[in-house]
Amino acid sequence: DQTGYIFVVDAGTDSLYQFTQKGFEGVNPPPTSIQTKQIIASFGGTGSGQYNFIDPSAVCYFRKVVYVADKGNNRICRYKLSTDLE
Length: 86
What we know:
Elements: E1 6-10, E2 15-19, E3 43-44, E4 56-62, E5 65-70, E6 75-80
Antiparallel strand pairs: 1-2, 2-3, 4-5, 5-6
């Protein structure tokens, strides 16, 4: 995306991964955070739940929304990205 994040789906682990442009997994913490390490934003695992996949085959990012083609569940999953921690 325009912030330099890279999104990858892995059919082997049925997961969605997010990396920084430097190759670190996760997202940079907000500027006001005391945390200095990336916040892990990857998720998945085999299943049919809201955050699970079966054989994800594609990922797309557009206007702070990630879409995942979840082939095994015959669906497109939509996730709105946010750094709100509330």
